[in-house]
Amino acid sequence: MKKQFLNFLTLSALMGTIVLSSCSDDNGGDPIEPPVEQEDRFITVAGALMADNPGDGNGGTMVYSVSIEEAKDPETQISVYTEGFGVKSNRTARLQSSEDGSTLFNIAYTGDNGGEFSKYTVNGGDSFVQSDVSVNISQYAGTSPRWLKLNDGDKTGIALNMANIAANNAPAGNTPDAAFAYYRGVATVLALDLQESLIRSYVQYEIPLTEEEEAEGHTIFRLDGSVLNKAGDKLIIGTWMRKYNVATGETEGDYERLGSKSVVVDYPSFANPSVINSTVGHGDNSGYRSHYSYLGDDGNIYQATERDPAGSYILRINQSNVYDDSYVFSLNHALGLSGVTIEAWQYAQDGKAFALISHDGAENGFVVWMDLDARTASIVDMPYDADLEFNQYQGFVVDGIDVYMAVTPVGKDGNIYILNSNTGVATKGATLVNQPGNHYIGIF
């Protein structure tokens, strides 16, 4: 396999608080086309190696690609840990792929190369040829940035960071002289040009809540899960909220939540940040390592919640870029369970989607088929194992009506499954050969 070494870009011209530029075709406002089946695309499988504890996924990431026909065949044996290619990352890589599966995008997570964006041409098997151009965003978004690819035809990736949360914006560890008013951090929103491997623009600012909320110690702790609206002029960013005890400065683990919140900014400028609030859901919506908001075929944005006191909800943000609180879809209610948590999920087509969940009273995770229009959900009929966990799951592939995902218990063999989004039926595909402590975390 041919390997190419990196030539690091000089980014001194980008230093500063804000650099804004865009290409004329970056708006992304064209209508989203329905999914089309691609018979010749590659399916890339990713596996996370354990570091200290089984299932921690902190030992790096391996990838291996097969044809779509091979992915569908249960006789295909894939052993990513013995035959795969190691992508750059000290811990679990944050991977995305092009829509046709021909390119793999990666931002290394933590370590000496944390924040380094690179891309690979997918040639099948363990052949991933790295581009000779790379860029490191760590000086702007830290060595552990959260990032996702926008729904704009593989043009743009959005990296996000929230840093230096402190009272009255004082340096961390210092006591502000003024009376307490708020806890805030400095948010970074950064656009990566995925084709040219360069930073297109970035902005840094504080994002305030209401005076009443901030006076009680509420603040935005993390940003992630960004999605572009149908018009292509607004970016919706998910949040993970935190509350501080204003008397002691300590974080509070158990507090009354204020409703699910998202940040809305102009696109592509990232200007005019505002916070929208749902009264239906009360959990966070930033996700963990995968998309948590999707633009639906109907032009609305559908967003999952986590850490929600009443279990996960699917929320709807309308084309006016505000929450539609008339739309109520509770996974607890739809499944007749308690404590349902969506670990990851994937919108497919025509209002159909799949979610990977955990719930009260169960050791393992489950796959759930959802109809967002009817607001119904059911557990997919497939083998489940007590060691099956989805909390680190990252990637799905949508190919027409089918959704491909990797299902492997920690340390045990599993399979690729092909999920029919019209029927909710799962078909077993290629065998995923595992190793002790490891697990497969996505299809790309």
From TrEMBL:
Residues 1-24 form the signal peptide. PROSITE patterns: PROKAR_LIPOPROTEIN. Keywords: Signal. This is DUF4374 domain-containing protein. It comes from Algoriphagus aquimarinus.
